[in-house]
Specification:
The protein is mainly β. It has two helices and nine strands.
């Protein structure tokens, strides 16, 4: 007896599936604006005090017109005497965010307590950025009211209809 389902998952069906998920991932579709935080990636010279290049730290002298005044000889309140301030690198990204555990895509991960966890869907091209991120803030449109910051819980899982065109990531709340 011939298999009635042979040839069902052909190129046309896979293309239709990929096009449907890509349409949902458009910035004006089912996504939320999110911010990937990569942590401190570099340091800039403090713009509040005079930097001492020989000692490689703050000279603890206030720069005229700087934002936070302090007395000469005291520690600069902005850089705490280091002469440098950390620069936290971020990048904005649009993701499908699944808040409800019952809506999650089954990726074979056994999660006993999903409270405080969410799942996201994104394009496979976003995998390097998501793996490098130290944390993520979901729905940056409302971060003035509530800040949803999460860290990755496990590795992102490739997903798709036989092509692995997308990734599914589980995140755990930190704040």
């Amino acid at each position: 007896m011939a298999n009635p389902f042979s040839g069902l998952f052909n190129k046309d069906l896979k293309d239709t599936f990929d096009n449907a998920i890509n349409a949902m991932l458009e910035s004006d579709a089912l996504t939320l604006p999110c911010q990937l935080n990569f942590g401190v990636t570099k340091y800039e010279t403090c713009d509040n005090c005079l930097y001492d290049p020989i000692g490689k730290k703050s000279s603890n002298y206030f720069l005229s017109g700087a934002p936070i005044p302090f007395r000469s000889g005291q520690q600069c309140p902005m850089c705490e005497g280091t002469g440098k301030k950390p620069v936290i690198t971020t990048e904005n990204i649009d993701l499908i965010v699944l808040w409800q555990y019952k809506d999650w895509i089954d990726i074979g991960v056994d999660i006993r307590s999903p409270e405080g966890m969410v799942q996201t869907i994104s394009k496979i091209a976003d995998l390097p950025k998501i793996k490098k991120a130290k944390s993520i803030i979901f729905d940056t449109d409302i971060q003035n009211y509530v800040k949803h910051e999460f860290i990755r819980s496990g590795e992102p899982t490739p997903a798709g209809l036989g092509r692995d065109s997308f990734i599914v990531t589980i995140w755990e709340r930190v704040k």
